[in-house]
Write a structure and sequence with these properties.
The protein is an alpha+beta fold. It has 2 domains: about 110 residues, no CATH class; about 110 residues, no CATH class. The chain is about 35% helix and about 25% strand. The protein is built from 8 helices and 14 strands. Strands 1, 5, 7, 8 and 11 form a 5-stranded antiparallel beta sheet that branches. Strands 6-10-9 form a 3-stranded antiparallel beta sheet, with no helix packed on it. Helix 2 packs across helix 7. The longest helix is centred in the last third of the chain and has 21 residues. The protein starts with 10 loop residues before the first helix and ends in a 10-residue tail after the last helix. The N terminus is likely disordered.
Length: about 300
């Protein structure tokens, strides 16, 4: 029972203040493409490419029919939408391998080392996952996975997290303090531990544990990334289709001393289109890497 004259605490307001201080997620400042966008009359994202769009945009005029008849039905096999959609899904994985980026939203826990020379630059960290759409938590974790200190998300600067750059800017130190979770040390002990460790070591492997979301959420991916997926899927389709033309590229017919020979391109039928797609794929990979800050430059300056 509360003391007379003392107002009961507003639990709703207290929970709101706690959530603001500790945070549940720290999204990027503005949209991810273009970086920092807050409004635009043109949507640069779209759903994953479909079989119908793959046919019209990347395989226009190419009949997706096998050159070999099915020995049971006696009919030529036709690439169905189900098969093409499956190859599109595979193309997503291939595009991720080509670029080193996550396309669909994925929850990831990264362990980041403590480097004195980097940390003194306002807690600079370079995450491996790209692109990063939000930060869920940043903790100091021991080797046995015990959380020692949770850094408030209000300290995390997300201006450049799309490219994997994270900074700790404790400008709210006086008002918010250090958040703790069950099983972690208190604020004073956590800060003391952090300062003691950082003051004695110049490098500690896997010191920070960063929980983040990498990729584009809600099946909305940049158009340029979708184009890369379409190119990769089209190459896989043409490669599979070209194999059915490999058995014979020419044939002849002879009747009563008369003969006729017909020569075809065989598997080279789609070679020109495959070469065009290969050049386009290489160009798109470089452009998509630039979005996540993964394109490296070197010079002799």
């Amino acid at each position: 029972m509360p003391i007379v004259g003392t107002p009961e605490p507003d639990l709703t307001q207290l929970e709101a203040e706690t959530e603001t201080t500790t945070g549940k997620t720290m999204p990027a400042g503005g949209e991810m493409l273009p970086e920092g966008k807050i409004d635009s009359s043109w949507d640069r994202t779209e759903p994953l490419i479909t079989a119908e769009r793959l046919r019209s945009q990347h395989l226009f005029g190419i009949p997706l029919v096998s050159a070999i008849k099915d020995p049971i039905t006696g009919r030529y096999a036709v690439m169905t939408d189900e098969l093409i959609n499956d190859m599109i899904v595979q193309a997503v994985s291939l595009a991720e391998a080509d670029t080193g980026m996550n396309i669909f939203a994925t929850s990831i826990v990264e362990r980041v080392e403590y480097d004195y020379n980097l940390f003194k630059q306002l807690g600079y960290m370079q995450l491996k996952s790209r692109p990063v759409s939000s930060i869920e938590s940043v903790e100091v974790v021991t080797a046995n996975e015990e959380s020692v200190m949770t850094i408030p998300l209000s300290w995390i600067d997300t201006s450049y997290i799309t490219r994997g750059q994270l900074n700790i800017v404790p400008l709210t130190l006086i008002t918010s303090g250090v958040a703790t979770t069950p099983g972690t040390t208190s604020q004073g002990a956590g800060v003391s531990f952090l300062l003691a460790i950082l003051g004695q070591r110049t490098n500690i492997p896997a010191f920070f544990s960063v929980t983040l979301t990498s990729g584009w959420a809600d099946n909305r991916i940049p158009r340029i990334v979708n184009q890369l997926i379409g190119v990769v899927a089209a190459m896989e389709v043409l490669s599979m289709l070209g194999a059915t033309y490999a058995r014979s590229s020419s044939h002849s017919l002879g009747v009563d001393g008369l003969s006729q020979s017909v020569a075809g391109l065989g598997p080279a039928l789609f070679q020109s289109r495959l070469e065009d797609l290969q050049l386009k794929r290489k160009s798109l990979i470089a452009k998509v890497k630039r979005i996540g800050g993964l394109l490296l430059f070197s010079s002799n300056v």
